[in-house]
Write a structure and sequence with these properties.
There is one protein chain. By secondary structure, the chain is mainly beta. The protein has one domain (13-347): YVTN repeat-like/Quinoprotein amine dehydrogenase (Methylamine Dehydrogenase, Chain H, 7 Propeller). It is built from one helix and 32 strands. The chain has one helix at residues 13-17, and strands at residues 18-22, 27-33, 36-41, 45-50, 58-61, 67-70, 80-83, 89-94, 100-104, 108-113, 116-122, 128-134, 138-143, 146-150, 155-158, 163-168, 174-187, 195-207, 213-218, 221-226, 233-234, 242-247, 253-257, 260-264, 271-272, 276-282, 288-293, 298-302, 308-312, 318-323, 329-334, 338-343. Strands 16-17-18-19-20-21 form a six-stranded antiparallel β-sheet, with no helix packed on it. Strands 1-32-31-30 form a four-stranded antiparallel β-sheet. It is globular, with a radius of gyration of 20 Å.
């Protein structure tokens, strides 16, 4: 059994294995490009922080049991900053082919890869509301009630109202579109897309790791659809308005808001994780997640277990949290403009029945 815990006297993991910088502009978006955490700023720039660098501190097994820290032998590299937009960055998305896609209030849809800025499309004097990228070079962006899909099967989709969220499934063949009043599931080669009417705008979308289910959060709750089923299931018993959702690898759905974090599985009521709140992020390979608390800490938890580890000390409230694609690092952004990364190596989650230590 994986064990995730640390002595209460241990400092936050970010103090041991992390780095952060404070930017003068508020942070509006976060996405990962391989080992680089990319932060979209309200001034139109994207700042990239590397989670691993030459001379970074490391964890290593301790002879006789336990783990210890190998101190840093070199400083972290400063952020790499790219001016992508003339106006606020409104959305970032990881591109499976490498790099990230971005949208801004300037109406420009771009891709940033290896320091090169590639303009994909432009809608003059329009605001890009959401962006996404899927496998096979599929990329999508939303302006108003329209979604433009680039790459194979490129087309424009018009929704009944303004689009608010986009998310490709892991295969890149299915695109979930959230809008003011519902959600639509578009698929390559299928003309008729299943849609669900909802009260209010969809604020977040999440696909299960295997792509067999999708969840949509809106002001009134969360709707979940298994793609093999014809109907949606609605999550009951939420403590507030959901703002952040994600699936664990065991298919549990986590739902968080301004003052709560709950977990749900099909045909059950939503249980609670007392003291935790959004934002949240789920590990891509393990049944663990990270979320904020009322003091501004970031806490690492294992699903269904009381074990916990403090990742970041109390401070200004986190606004974004995201694991790296391989789960070996975590990035966060706070409301005061702080952006940081920290290593979260697999060595922290050893097999055994004892308690791990730092």
């Amino acid at each position: 059994m994986d064990v995730l815990s640390a002595p209460r006297t241990a400092p936050p993991l970010h103090d041991l294995l992390g780095v952060s910088f404070v930017f003068n502009s508020p942070i509006a978006a976060l996405a990962w490009d391989r080992d680089f955490a990319c932060f979209g700023l309200q001034d139109g720039a994207v700042a990239m922080l590397r989670a691993h660098w030459d001379g970074a501190p490391e964890l290593a097994p301790r002879p006789g049991g336990g783990i210890h820290i190998i101190p840093a032998s070199g400083p972290p590299a400063p952020p790499a900053i790219f001016g992508l937009h003339k106006g606020q960055v409104t959305g970032l998305g990881a591109d499976p082919l490498g790099g990230i896609v971005s949208g801004g209030t300037d109406g420009v849809f771009q891709r940033l890869i290896d320091g090169e800025i590639q303009t994909i499309d432009t809608r003059a004097r329009k605001r890009v509301a959401a962006v996404a990228a899927g496998r096979g070079g599929r990329r999508a962006f939303a302006v108003g009630r329209d979604v433009d899909i680039k790459g194979p099967e490129g087309r424009r989709i018009s929704l009944p109202a303004a689009v608010t969220a986009l998310a490709y499934d892991p295969s890149g063949l299915h695109l979930a579109i959230g809008f003011a009043g519902g959600v639509s599931l578009e698929a390559c080669g299928i003309r008729t897309a299943p849609r669900l009417d909802l009260e209010g705008a969809v604020t977040a979308l999440a696909w299960r790791e295997d792509g067999t289910a999708v969840a949509a959060a809106y002001a009134g709750g969360v709707a979940v659809r298994d793609r093999t089923e014809a109907s949606w299931e609605f999550v009951e018993g939420l403590a507030g308005t959901p703002t952040s959702i994600g699936f664990l690898t065991n298919r549990t759905l986590l739902i968080a808001g301004a003052g709560f974090l709950q977990h749900w599985r099909p045909k059950t009521m939503a249980g609670t994780y007392p003291g935790l709140r959004g934002p949240l992020t789920c590990h891509p390979r393990r049944d663990i997640f990270a979320a904020a608390d009322a003091a501004g800490q970031i806490i690492l938890r294992r699903a269904g277990m009381p074990d916990a580890m403090i990742l970041r000390e109390p401070g200004p409230a986190p606004v974004f949290i995201a694991f790296a694609p391989d789960g070996q690092a975590l990035a966060f952004a706070a409301e005061d403009g702080e952006a940081g990364t920290m290593k979260v190596p697999d060595l922290l989650f050893r097999t055994g029945t004892g308690r791990s230590s730092l």
